[in-house]
Amino acid sequence: MKLQQLRYVVEIVRHGNHLSAAADAMHTSQPGVSRQVQLLEQELGFEIFQRTRNRIIGLTEPGMIVFNIAQRIATDVAALTTLKEDMHAGNRGVFTIATTHTIARYVLPEVVEKFVASYPEVKLVLKQGDPEEICALVDSGDADLAIGTDTTRDFPNLVKLQCFELQRCIIAQVGHPILSVPELTLEEVAKYPIITYDSRYSGRWKVMQAFSERGLEPKIVMSGIDADVCKTYVAKGLGIGILADMTFDKDRDIELDARNAGELLPSSTVKITLRPNTYLRRFLLDFIQSIAPQLTPYVVRREVREFQRA
């Protein structure tokens, strides 16, 4: 059994079961990848992948276990490589953060400004995606940590650190009736077309669940992953917005007004997610604490140790 064979398994799954794409990513040939996977299956005594007409269509049940182990081994090896580099680099290197638009736009600017001033020799890389995509980047080793809200998919191999809650608000054109109704209720909100987050975000499915529990079916006329885009269309009068309250800026959003909906709609928890084998460099710990002061280096290390023991 070779480490490279396990890497092939991981890359095949990551590239949607396409051998050619996995081979390109590993800078080798498709027949070579196929041959090595077959040798690994022969050694293990069972098939890792389901196949039809010599085409891989998914993992077998034991193949899923192999994939999970192979992924852990691959990230452990990557962690060792990073550790080696860090021990020689000190407070230098590359720090890759995966996050959502809301966090990147409304939470990180001041944090990043202070971080760059404190660690000028660290190259900061920001990658954006929905909550599931950013966790997948961490899980695969393509990002050091992720900052986002809840995911529908579980990531059992990642440590999740709770940061803070995102409350909801109703955003509408200045003068819209929803802004002046004496008592804001879900029934009143459901009277109007709604613009909100894409279904991949907890802001969408938690909101829809709240309406459903009241027997209401709101009309979602538009959804997006970008709060600023949603506000643009609210300003055009296409509907009212249900967004995170931090996304409303009264000085910039002069055509809009907002009303707090924290008592009507559930909040979303922003979490920092990282691999348990991540080398906790000083600048990484400082970055985490700058976002969530309660996540001190001691707390982060304790959470990681407890996860490893579980």
Fill in the keyword field for this structure.
44% helix, Arc Repressor Mutant, subunit A, 3 domains, D-Maltodextrin-Binding Protein, domain 2, 310 residues, 12 helices, alpha/beta
Neighbour order of strands in the largest sheet: 4-3-5-12-6
Nearest-integer average pLDDT: 90
SS-based structural class?
Answer: alpha/beta
Number of domains: 3
Ranges with pLDDT <50 over ≥5 residues? none
For the largest beta-sheet, the strand count, sense and barrel status come to:
5 strands, mixed
Name of the CATH first level of the largest domain? Alpha Beta
User: Termini, distance in Å?
Assistant: 28 Å
* Helical fraction: 40-55%
How many helices? The count is: 12
Radius of gyration: 23 Å
Strand runs, count: 12
State the order of secondary-structure elements, H for helix, E for strand: HHHEEHEHHEHEEEHEHEHEEEHH
Written description of the protein model:
There is one protein chain. This protein is of the alpha/beta class and 310 residues long. The chain has three domains: 3-70, Winged helix-like DNA-binding domain superfamily/Winged helix DNA-binding domain (Arc Repressor Mutant, subunit A), CATH 1.10.10.10; 90-165 and 269-309, 3-Layer(aba) Sandwich (D-Maltodextrin-Binding Protein, domain 2); 168-266, 3-Layer(aba) Sandwich (D-Maltodextrin-Binding Protein, domain 2), CATH 3.40.190.10. The protein is 44% helix and 22% strand. The protein has helices at 3-14, 19-25, 30-44, 61-89, 101-106, 108-118, 131-139, 186-189, 202-213, 227-235, 282-291, 297-309; strands spanning 49-52, 55-59, 93-99, 122-128, 145-148, 159-166, 168-173, 194-197, 220-224, 240-244, 256-260, 268-274. It has a five-stranded mixed β-sheet with strand order 4-3-5-12-6, with helices on both faces. Strands 9-8-10-7-11 form a five-stranded mixed β-sheet, with helices on both faces. It has a two-stranded antiparallel ribbon with strand order 1-2. α1 (3-14) crosses α2.
